[in-house]
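Researcher: Here's the sequence for the chain we discussed earlier.
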Amino acid sequence: MTSRAKTKSHSATEKPKSSKTRKARIFELLKAEHAEALGMIEEICENGETMEDAERLEKFDEFRAALMAHSQAEARAFYAPLKEAASEPALVLEADVEHIVVQRLLEDLSSPKLDAERWMARATVVMELLEHHIEEEEGELFDLAESECDEETLAKMADDFEAEKERLTEIVA
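Model: Thanks. This is the structure I predict for it:
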């Protein structure tokens, strides 16, 4: 495990960043994306029954692309280093499984064989799973990351997440 030192020496020309600012960056990035994804699926679930099929599927495709890029970037840049740093990685492993479950439901929702009623039922389950996952992640997992990772690791997570998200978004687009 890496050192948990909270301070670093800085040269006279280098401005130290507060550890709160550096630590908060990965958490704020993830929170913003969680809010965006949840807003997208909530709109689909609240208005999906009154939308034309083409509009609902277009909104779903946007949601799916955004969520898949987020999920994969999060797994690589946040979960993987957190699993390595955590003395008890069970929470991270559970979050990984939740990602897999949502991905499978997204595959189901991409099927043209579902009628509108069954499609909306699955979309609602995706929304509920996301709400649960986000609540746990922003609580227990963020707490775990803050306690088990030093500020350099947290800053690297943020940098890696942004780079991976950008790369994945270009692939999906």
